[in-house]
Write a structure and sequence with these properties.
- This protein is of the alpha+beta class and about 180 residues long.
- It is about 25% helix and about 30% strand.
- Strands 1-2-3-4-5-6-8-7 form an 8-stranded mixed beta sheet, with helices on both faces.
- A hairpin with a 2-residue loop joins strand 3 and strand 4.
- The longest helix is centred in the last third of the chain and has 15 residues.
Length: about 180
């Protein structure tokens, strides 16, 4: 079920294995969940996400990633809700591109718990970011991806959106996905 206010966004989804998960808006009180999530990513996944070796988020980064306006900066959490509490599985976000603001573009990024990679969580987060992006009149998603990050490339190419790609001199791929 979707709510009218994007800061309260929440939807139920079912993974291919039958597990029911929740995709919901990230909130400021989710800082500990994001920090803990860093410990559930391999060094390779962390490098693919941040393009640097990182194991912790600074307080400034935690604020940036959780104190969102849901217009120019949207963040979603995919989680498994159990009797013991909420188990985070992955996050997805988009941030309006200042240099491409005139064409209503936003950069997207994802991170999925190692244990749950390959189960469609990235694809579901992408699906919900597309819904919110369209509500916010975003016309283009941009992702910067290392060429070896096949899982991210599969999510992007599997989105059903028209895709173009360029590679910079450092080898980083710029993937553009048109929402309209």
């Amino acid at each position: 079920m979707l709510t009218a206010k994007l800061q309260d966004y929440q939807a139920s989804e079912v993974l291919a294995d039958g597990s029911q998960i929740t995709v919901r808006a990230l909130h400021p009180e989710d800082k500990p969940i994001l920090q803990e999530g860093m410990h559930h990513l391999s060094k390779n996944s962390l490098y693919n996400r941040f393009f640097t070796w990182k194991t912790e988020l600074s307080p400034k980064e935690l604020s940036f990633f959780t104190e969102l306006d849901f217009v120019d900066h949207v963040g979603l959490l995919a989680s498994l809700v159990t009797p013991e509490g909420e188990r985070p599985l992955g996050v997805g976000r988009y941030i309006a591109c200042k240099e491409l603001k005139s064409i209503h573009a936003a950069e997207i990024a994802f991170a999925v718990d190692e244990e749950f990679q390959g189960r469609g969580i990235g694809k579901l987060l992408m699906k919900h970011l597309i819904v919110i992006g369209r509500q916010n009149h975003v016309k283009l998603f941009v992702a910067y991806v290392l060429p070896g990050n096949r899982k991210m490339l599969a999510v992007l190419y599997g989105s059903g959106l028209p895709v173009t790609r360029n590679q910079d001199e450092a080898g980083v791929l710029e993937i553009r996905l048109r929402l309209t």
